[in-house]
Amino acid sequence: MENAEQIKEYDRILRDATGLRSHPVGVNFLRDLAPAQEVERAKGHRFCQAVMRARQGERLLLTAEEIACPAAASALGFKALPHKLESGEMLKGFGIFQDEAMAARTVRAMPRLELGKYPGILLGPLDSFPDLPDVVLLEGPVEKLMWVALAYLNATGGRLASSTAVLQAICVDSAVLPFLQDTINLSYGCYGCREATDLEEGETAMGFPGHLLPVITENLIHLREKAIPRCRGKVVFRTWREGLPVPKGHCGD
Q1: 59: left (phi over 0), alpha (psi -120 to 50) or beta
Q2: Which of 33, 106, 138, 244 is 20 to 30 A from 50 in CA distance terms?
């Protein structure tokens, strides 16, 4: 059973090994709002905006009454999907899709939480959680998230298959899907989160179930010892560019 100090240590390792500049975000899907009554309500926020504030160090509670995004409200089980979204009309109106039928097909394929099952969602910096959260959500440069994916593969082997509709990248791709499917998922980002938050061009998002945090951080410690600094040092690239022999140990010898 993890405790608050262990969570802080996982957070430290995750940030130190990857070089993430902002907080990893913990996400808890709440069946009971009572334990979070003292947490600030994220009034008028989209889910992605609440995540943005959480990765800057704030703890927030998001409910059906506060959420400002109808697409996220549906995916999180807060509200039914509005007709204009379900039909594809809204996505066509925003210029995201040309064909309403293709937009509607994409919307219908979104993973969703059961309507009304979780009345609230608690978000905050990972190191503020006393226990492992339901989901750990990361936003940052792709290279930094790549190491987390490799740390996961160190535990499973094989290949990763990420799922995205290039819509609802934070609420669905990085929170709902990892929670429902119990797996890591990397997104490209989307129209909504890039328009509504400070997510930069070269940044994207990733989510994984909180129970994987111990093994992922353990494997990041291993990667930090050799693979990460060697890769970031770009010795092979620099010697190739300068026409020099590749140093011993950099070609599998």
Answers
A1: beta
A2: 106
Which residue carries 């092979």 as its tokens?
236
Q: What are phi and psi of 4, to 5 degrees?
A: -60, -40
Number of other CB atoms surrounding residue 246 within 10 Å: 12
Q: The tokens of 102 are what?
A: 């293709």
Q: Are 184 and 208 in contact (CB under 8 A)?
A: yes
Rounded Cα–Cα distance for residues 14 and 212 (Å): 12
DSSP category for residue 211: G
Diameter of the chain measured on Cα atoms: 65
Residues 6+ apart with CB under 8 A from 218: none
Mean pLDDT split into 10-residue runs, the chain, 253 residues: 91 98 97 92 97 97 96 97 96 97 96 97 97 98 98 98 97 98 97 97 97 98 97 91 77 52
Question: What is the C-alpha to C-alpha distance for residues 48 and 196, in angstroms, rounded to an integer?
Answer: 8
Cβ atoms 66, 43 nearer than 8 A: yes
Structural contact between residues 187 and 174, judged by C-beta atoms closer than 8 angstroms: yes
Residue type at position 71: A
Instruction: Retrieve residue 188's tokens.
Output: 């490209």
d(CA 205, CA 54): 14
Give the separation between CA 10 and CA 240, rounded to whole angstroms: 37
pLDDT digits 0-9 by tens, 109-140 = 999 999 999 999 999 999 999 999 999 999 99
